TrEMBL record:
SUPFAM superfamilies: NTF2-like (SSF54427). This is SnoaL-like domain-containing protein. GO terms for biological process: polyketide metabolic process. It comes from the Bacteria. It comes from Nocardioides panzhihuensis. InterPro entries: Cyclase_SnoaL-like, NTF2-like_dom_sf.
Amino acid sequence: MAETHATTSMAGYPYVDIVDFVERTTYQIWNDKQPELVPNWYLPGTIIWTDGGDMVGEAVVTRDTIDRRRGFSDYYGIIDDTIWTGDDERGYRTSMRWIARGTHDGVSSLGEPTGRKLVNSSISNCIVVGDQYVEEWAAGNGKAFVEQLGFSLEESVANNRRSKMPLGDEAAATTKSFGATVPAMPGVIDGAGAVVREVLDGLYNRRDLTVADRHYAPGAPYSFGTTRLGFGPEGAKAEVQRWLDLLPDLRLELDELYWNDDSPQRSRVAVRYRVTGTATNAAGEERPVSVMCLHHIHVRGDLVTAEWVEYNEVALLAQVGAR
């Protein structure tokens, strides 16, 4: 079942609701240039899972935030949407989509400044208990990041770190260990959630591209990060076909699915899943691939009216190997 648009209280904390908490703390840390506030909302055991390598603990998150700000003095993000589920008792799951812009004008772990402009989109799915971020899954396109700054893609691929994120029952147990019992998917998947589940299963697992013809509105934008934009059924099918060409034995497994109903016919859906399969690289080697994907999907009735997709192409290239 979906959550209604009005959220519960976050009782005892100085926030209007869970959306206010996520957006206000993000803006304070990043746009207000206050990385020293990270320990207020992240714990020593907080884990951020990414396909470019994981981060554990508020000290690591603080250092990473300071480093990014050193490299981009004008780094500034705008949150486009936050989708949520949960309550004060069970904890919350939130999915925040934003776009940040900045000029690479400072020395940081990235090296000497290039003076280049950056537009960087991402989606972050978080677990919130009380007023603490305890677990997070984040995805953005590392390939777009390095190409905009003129860095070596080959070097970035070679240096990519694999995630140790747990899957399935182990993932649920990890989340529960942080004190959160809000489920990754509701017990009843209906409405917009059922539409999105059918779309993903039909396109990827059943390889039935006519699902896009039935469930994507004409002209519906399909955006992959800041690098690819398609429209309508053909835009969705083009992205799916890229995956099927790369991974003929592709399987898609849902890890998170929840949504907010803004009206009886209009909903915003957050979904996280993992694509697995076997790729054959340019050297003829067969390589196992496992990539996390995060989507925000707008649904009207049984039609997708807009979709935003994030995954890390640097991690994908690193797993595929020789180009």
